[in-house]
Design brief:
188 residues; mainly alpha; 79% helix
């Protein structure tokens, strides 16, 4: 305490008695220097208050970090959750020896449902891809039909002028044909 009292004499200038009295035994020499700097450089009174609040929280955090938990805190960290579970078990009339079996059955059922959900997600993604290919084929199908209807001379000219569209048509047609081989339910 004597060091703190002597440190209080270091403050000079526009420092109030209340600001000096804010220093307690938790302040180190570095903390006092930082506080003095804040007092002399702060633009607003709230800057000083913010510093003191942050400092006090840091002291609390340091104390909590060095605190050894009680035996109850170590052995029963989730007493509130355990109490809720116990109340629910009592409310529905489940015996303690039945809880483990019921929990295992529920876990197995949940695992089964997750598997089914993943299968459905895969099917949905496959269907999205099929739909995308079929929509694109519908858009470019007319190119193939026009190409077939042209004479040999006109076909060569059409191929030169529309080479990108024709390439897109053949690519989409091939992807559609692959879908027809894989999935028999698609009308080809």
């Amino acid at each position: 305490m004597r060091q703190i009292c002597s440190a209080k004499w270091l403050f000079v200038g526009d420092v109030t008695r209340g600001q000096i009295d804010s220093i307690d035994e938790t302040f180190t020499a570095e903390d006092i220097q930082a506080y003095d700097e804040i007092l002399h450089n702060a633009l607003q009174e709230s800057d000083v208050a913010d510093f003191l609040t942050a400092y006090k929280q840091a002291v609390i955090d340091r104390e909590n970090a060095s605190r050894v938990p009680t035996e109850e805190e170590v052995l029963f960290p989730n007493m509130k959750v355990a109490s809720i579970a116990k109340n629910i078990i009592a409310q529905y009339g489940v015996e303690p020896d039945q809880v483990h079996g019921a929990a295992m059955a529920a876990f197995i059922y949940r695992t089964h449902l997750v598997g089914e959900l993943n299968d459905l997600k895969t099917q949905i993604e496959d269907l999205k891809e099929k739909l995308k290919v079929l929509k694109k084929y519908r858009k470019v199908k007319h190119i193939g039909e026009e190409l077939k209807a042209l004479s040999v001379k006109d076909e060569k000219k059409y191929r030169r002028e529309h080479s990108g569209e024709i390439a897109e048509y053949y690519e989409t047609r091939d992807r559609r044909a692959d879908l027809c081989l894989i999935y028999s339910n698609i009308v080809c």
